[in-house]
Amino acid sequence: MIWGSIIAWYLFLAGLAAGAFATAALVSFKDRGRKAFVKVQLVGRIVALLALAIGLFLLIFDAEAGFKNPLRFFYLLTNFASVMTWGVVILGVFGCVSLVTLLLSLLKKHVPYWLDGLGIAAAACTAAYTGVLIGVIKTYPLWNTALLPVLFLVSALSAGMAATFILSALIAPRELEGLGILKKLHFALLPTELLLLVALLYVASSTAPAAQASVERLVSGDLALTFWLGLVVAGLIVPLFSGGIGIGAGGNPGGRGSDTDGADGARASGRGGAGGGGRGRTSSGIRTMEAAGDVGVLVGGFLLRYLIIVAAVPLTFVF
Amino acid sequence: MTRYAMLIHTTRCVGCFACRVACQTQNSLPASDSFIRYEEQESGSYPVVYAEQVPLQCQHCEDAPCVSVCPTGASYINNEGIVLVNQERCIGCKYCMTACPYNARIQDHRTGEVEKCRFCVWHDDGSVPEPACVDTCVTGARIFGDLDDPTSEVSQAIVSHNAKPIAAGLTRAKIYYVR
């Protein structure tokens, strides 16, 4: 195996960073300057920069010769035929926007919408490039499909939202109450991801014997237990159930208000104090379950990349 | 122009692995690392079966995926058609290693840099170099020479044996196999 778990962690963390940034930016768009969701935004922006920093460190650490001779990293901008070179440019833009927006948020300044828009574009490029990076490699037919960048993009947003929501639930649960529409988007990503995963495995297994061998390792071979229990059950099925129940509870008449007045709902529940049962309160049981689902999403997000990296069988052995 | 190429006659190969040892010695590689590896291929059906050793190394492709993916420009093709790595530019990201369909590249963990067969060009002093693997082959299964010279031994052997790259149409490889 040429690339292993370090690269899988990098792909996951870069995607997580992109997803968390997009979550914060979407919250900001919904907030429209009313400052009702300041903490969720801050959490998203911190998660984004932190995940990106850790991911980049892992990437540099894995590039042994560059790690020993750091000046060589300047050569990274020389071959624009390489996806990795484009990745460096994309990561540069995303990293800068991510840092600036975090500083603005920390200084309690309003982040301009155009900057968040640019950031969302850079985040989407970051998440998709992690799929293109390995998707252009013909040696591994499992990777060599156009579906992979799309799958990684969807999974990245899903993981970023999950991480932001878990931490926000601890720090600012009431702000989270008003973000029903994002929770619905978060939920909708799961069946999308499942569909893309099935399509990827199905299409890939029909392209080349090496891809078929890779799919067999996942579905019924040495990686089957991790694939079924880790990725499918913990990463997709559990979050689907918990997310569905969470949204169902949120939709009750006694639950939080409609999405259009979500921000007001959040503030109203804030005034409601600790009395509980007020407008827009979700029971702690449901909240715990939603958090468990989000942990599942994160586990699944990592395992998706890890399994796709390690399951890939090269063409070499089937000439 | 000169385009260096090699022919490997797998039906003459006895699987003694002398080429690998010669290569390791020539390139000062530790025993665990090698620029040449082997795939054993079985063919035929019982009771008429064959096993052949297929030595694999850098195929010096004209359409080299390792060169196009290399983010730092460390991998390149020189003007004699030999794929090389400029060690001073390599960051060890291993993208080239994943891109090589022949799994012909290795990472030297002493430096972190990626290396591979260089057709022994680095000790070329103006004369036509003879790679160590060709020089050492006991059964004469390897021929090295200029593909652009129709009178060269390698060009003539490719024609007379109808030798072909290991995987047709993959990367325009310049190592030809007689199988």
Give the proportion of residues in helices of chain A: over 70%
Head-to-tail CA distance between termini of chain B = 29 Å
Number of helices of chain A: 12
DSSP E strands of chain B, number = 10
State the shape of chain B. Answer: globular
CATH C-level name of chain B: Alpha Beta
Largest sheet of chain B, if any? 4 strands, mixed
The total count of helices of chain B amounts to 5
Q: Taking strands numbered 1, 2, ... along the chain, how are they ordered across the largest sheet of chain B? A: 8-1-10-9
Task: Describe what you observe in this structure.
- The complex is a heterodimer of chains A (319) and B (179).
- Chain A has 319 residues and is mainly alpha-helical.
- Chain A has one domain (5-318): Up-down Bundle (Formate dehydrogenase/DMSO reductase fold), CATH 1.20.1630.10.
- Helices cover 74% and strands 0% of the residues of chain A.
- Chain A contains twelve helices and no strands.
- Chain A has helices at residues 5-31, 38-62, 64-68, 83-106, 113-135, 147-171, 173-177, 180-205, 209-219, 224-250, 262-272, 284-311.
- In chain A, helix 1 (5-31) runs antiparallel to helix 2 (38-62).
- The two termini of chain A are 19 Å apart.
- Residues 252-280 of chain A have low confidence and may be disordered.
- Chain B is an alpha+beta fold and 179 residues long.
- Chain B has a single domain (4-178), classed as Alpha-Beta Plaits (2-Layer Sandwich).
- Helix content of chain B is 18%, strand content 25%.
- Chain B has five helices and ten strands; from the N terminus they run E-H-E-E-H-E-E-H-E-E-H-E-H-E-E.
- In chain B, strands 8-1-10-9 form a four-stranded mixed beta sheet. A two-stranded antiparallel ribbon of chain B has the order 2-3.
- Chain B is globular.
- The interface between A and B is medium-sized, with 34 and 33 residues.
